Structures are given as structure tokens and as C-alpha cells.
């Protein structure tokens, strides 16, 4: 458990709920634009929560209409224009430290919950989180070109990592905003849901993650991110080392118990269920609902078509 005084409360808000730490940008009147103060508070908060047991899953979101409307153009850019280089570098470093140095390999699972506007400087923390869910209605964009800078602070790096070259060039060059639904289509977020369901869906996802072994889950997220930049031989070697590390760190019992439940007791099927010391739970099948829906839609369309055809024919005949 972290010991020192909780560092949030002004521009960052934290709410704890059964293992979830809901971390909010909290400058709604400024659409959560990231000021120097906010970056400092966020850095301290993220560092603090890394060793706080109340946080097993960290959710990053924004209060009010925005996730975050990018960096604060007044406070982060204009006001620092005439500061010495060393001050500017310090300000940047404080931002980077939380936006991706801490968050990318964070020791807890992280979810970005994109509740509204997310521009420019919001992209690095969005992409640094392990998972992301957006409101369909959210407006998201690399708006830097619109006001005259190259997307920096790793905003464009974040997008090209997640969405590929064509998508990134299009949105970085045009500066057009896109919806949460489009963000899901491009892989910037895992899924988009109506804003009214955003928090419930995020909570559900966090709960799924909390049924896993914390140590092993941490190993999974860190290794997946690291191996993306490795060759196959290095990756294989590294992964075996990390498997051993996770067992050494506290993943051993989970593995042993699960193998017994599957191989000996026949009470657990790892392909469809999750095993933890609290029991076995059946996993939701991703894509099943969507497939069903489109099948239904297809069937409806087909039915309509066949219903329409004779009617059309009859109308034609009547005209004759
Ligand atoms: N920097 C500084 N102030 C900001 C920012 C920002 N990025 N975003 C919003 N604000 C302030 C506004 O200046 C305004 O302040 P005021 O009430 O003191 O005048 C307040 O927040 C509300 O903003 P409005 O524009 O009035 O809100 P509206 O809901 O109409 O629009 C929107 C919201 C679309 C987010 C708009 O504020 C906007 O375009 N903001 C800038 C988005 C952006 O491009 N950010 C920079 C990305 S690039 C980078 O981060 C490096
Ligand atoms: C951006 C963000 C920065 C920065 C410079 O384009 C540019 C966004 C997160 O910090 O220092």
C-alpha cells in the first residue's frame, strides 16, 4: 500500500470501486486540456497508484464533455515559448513520464475510457493504455495541423502504432475529427458503445481482467508490447524467460490449480472458461453477438427482398 499523501484532488480526480481506480482528467471547464499542473498531478497520481492495492485496474477518463482536448495551448505552449530550454525540456519530460513512460508498461491493467473529445496530446496516453473503449459519439482527432504544428509528444507515433500508415497519414494531414465508432474500426480503441453504456461496459471489462491472476496478466501485457519490436528468435527466448519470471513472482498456484481442474477433475475448459482461486467462470464470446445481429439483418433483408419482388411485379403488371 502506498504511504505518502494522495497527490490528486485539483486537476485529477480518483474514485476507487472494488479494485478499479477511475482516474479522471478534471478540468471540465477547459475540456480537460492538459496544463503543466495537470501533467504534474497526473504523473504523481499514476506513480502513486502503481503500488496502491486499491488499484488493480486503472481506468483513465475525463470529467465532463471531454476525455482531453489535447495539450493546453495557453499554458503548455504559449506560456512556455519564452522560457529557457531547460524549463521547456522539464515540462515535456513531466508529460512523457505519465503519458507513456509510466502507462505503457504500467504494472496494473489499464483501460482508456474515451467519453468525449480526444485531440492531439490525448493520443499518447490513449494508446499507452492496454485497452480502450470509446463512446460512439466521441470526437477524436490529430488536430495539430489545424493550428500549425506537426503532431508531436508521440501523438502521431501513437496513432501509426495502432491504426497503420494510411489512416494516420489521412487524419494527421487533414486534421479531420472522427467518431468513436471510426476509432474502433481503425483499431485505435477496442470497441465503441453508446455513451449511455460506456461506464457499464468499461466496468464489465475491468471485472473480467480482475478474474485473472494479477502477476500473469501483467506479464501478458508487458510481453505483448515488447515482442512487437523483436525478431522471432529473441521474442521466443524473452517469452520463456518471462513465463518463468511470472511463475517465480506468484503465478505458480494459478497454473497448477488450473491444470488439475482441467486434466484431473475435468471441471474446467480453458478455451471457454477462466480459472481463479475464486472459481471457474465462463467467458463471454466476443463477436458472437455481432455475428448473430448481422445474420438477423441479412435474413430480414432477404425476407424484405422476396416480399418486395412480387409486389413490384404486380405493380408493373397493373401499369401495363
Ligand atoms: N488548450 C487550451 N484551452 C482549451 C483547449 C486547449 N487545448 N481546449 C479547450 N480549451 C478551453 C477554451 O479555450 C475555453 O476556455 P474559456 O472558457 O476560458 O474561454 C474552454 O476550454 C471551453 O472551450 P470551447 O472551445 O468553448 O468548448 P467547445 O465545447 O465549444 O469546444 C473543443 C470543445 C472542440 C474541444 C474545442 O475547445 C477545441 O477545439 N479545443 C482544442 C482542441 C485541440 O485541437 N487541442 C490541441 C490538440 S494538439 C496538441 O495537443 C499538441
Ligand atoms: C504534442 C504533445 C506534446 C508535445 C508537443 O502534438 C506536441 C502534440 C504531449 O506533449 O510536447
Question: Key terms for this structure?
Answer:
disordered C terminus; alpha/beta; binds acetyl coenzyme *A; 12 strands; 6-stranded mixed β-sheet; 320 residues; binds 4-hydroxy-3-methoxybenzaldehyde; 11 helices; single chain; 2 domains; 2-enoyl-CoA Hydratase, Chain A, domain 1
Can you walk through the features of this model?
It contains eleven helices and twelve strands. The chain has 320 residues and is of the alpha/beta class. It has two domains: 12-210, 2-enoyl-CoA Hydratase, Chain A, domain 1; 214-307, no CATH class. The strands form three sheets. Strands 1-2-3-5-7-10 form a six-stranded mixed beta sheet, sandwiched between helices. A four-stranded mixed beta sheet has the order 4-6-8-9. It has a two-stranded antiparallel sheet with strand order 11-12. α1 packs parallel to α3 and α9 (214-227) packs antiparallel against α10. The chain binds acetyl coenzyme *A and 4-hydroxy-3-methoxybenzaldehyde. 4-hydroxy-3-methoxybenzaldehyde is lined by residues 71, 92, 95, 99, 120-121, 144, 151-153, 155.
Query: In one word, what is the shape?
Result: globular
Radius of gyration: 24 Å
The arrangement of helices and strands along the chain is EEHEEHHEEHEEHHEHEHHHEEH
CATH topology of the largest domain: 2-enoyl-CoA Hydratase, Chain A, domain 1
Q: Sheet bearing the most strands, described?
A: 6 strands, mixed
- Enumerate how many helices there are, as a single number: 11
Low-confidence stretches: 311-320
The rounded distance between the terminal residues' Cα atoms is 84 Å
Largest sheet: spatial strand order: 1-2-3-5-7-10
Mean pLDDT: 92
What number of domains?
A: 2
Tell me which CATH architecture of the largest domain applies here. Answer: Alpha-Beta Complex
Oligomeric nature of the chains: single chain
Tell me roughly what share of residues is in helical segments: 40-55%
Amino acid at each position: 500500500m502506498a504511504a505518502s499523501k494522495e497527490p490528486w484532488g485539483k486537476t485529477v480526480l480518483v474514485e476507487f470501486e472494488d479494485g478499479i481506480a477511475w482516474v479522471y482528467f478534471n478540468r471540465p471547464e477547459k475540456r480537460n486540456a492538459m496544463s503543466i499542473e495537470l501533467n504534474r498531478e497526473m504523473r504523481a497520481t499514476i506513480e502513486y497508484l502503481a503500488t496502491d492495492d486499491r488499484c488493480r485496474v486503472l481506468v483513465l477518463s475525463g470529467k465532463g464533455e471531454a476525455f482531453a482536448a489535447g495539450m493546453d495551448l495557453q499554458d503548455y505552449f504559449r506560456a512556455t515559448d519564452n522560457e529557457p530550454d531547460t524549463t521547456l525540456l522539464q515540462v515535456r519530460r513531466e508529460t512523457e513520464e505519465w503519458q507513456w513512460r509510466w502507462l505503457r508498461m504500467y504494472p496494473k491493467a489499464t483501460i482508456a475510457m474515451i467519453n468525449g473529445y480526444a485531440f492531439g496530446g490525448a493520443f499518447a496516453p490513449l494508446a499507452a493504455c492496454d485497452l480502450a473503449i470509446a463512446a460512439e459519439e466521441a470526437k477524436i482527432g490529430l488536430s495539430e495541423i489545424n493550428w500549425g504544428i506537426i503532431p508531436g509528444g508521440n501523438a502521431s507515433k501513437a496513432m501509426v502504432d495502432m491504426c497503420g500508415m494510411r489512416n494516420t497519414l489521412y487524419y494527421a494531414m487533414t486534421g479531420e475529427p472522427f467518431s468513436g465508432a471510426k476509432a474502433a474500426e481503425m483499431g485505435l480503441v477496442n470497441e465503441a458503445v453508446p455513451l449511455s453504456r460506456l461506464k457499464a461496459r468499461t466496468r464489465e471489462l475491468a471485472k473480467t481482467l480482475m478474474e485473472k491472476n494479477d502477476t500473469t496478466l501483467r506479464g501478458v501485457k508487458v510481453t505483448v508490447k515488447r515482442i512487437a519490436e523483436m525478431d522471432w528468435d529473441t521474442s521466443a527466448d524473452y517469452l520463456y524467460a518471462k513465463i518463468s519470471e511470472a511463475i517465480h513472482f506468484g503465478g505458480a498456484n494459478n497454473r497448477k490449480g488450473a491444470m488439475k481442474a482441467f486434466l484431473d477433475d475435468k471441471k474446467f475448459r480453458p478455451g471457454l472458461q477462466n480459472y481463479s482461486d475464486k472459481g471457474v467462470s465462463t467467458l463471454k464470446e466476443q463477436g458472437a453477438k455481432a455475428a448473430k445481429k448481422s445474420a438477423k439483418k441479412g435474413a430480414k433483408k432477404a425476407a424484405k427482398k422476396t416480399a418486395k419482388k412480387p409486389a413490384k411485379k404486380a405493380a408493373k403488371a397493373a401499369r401495363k
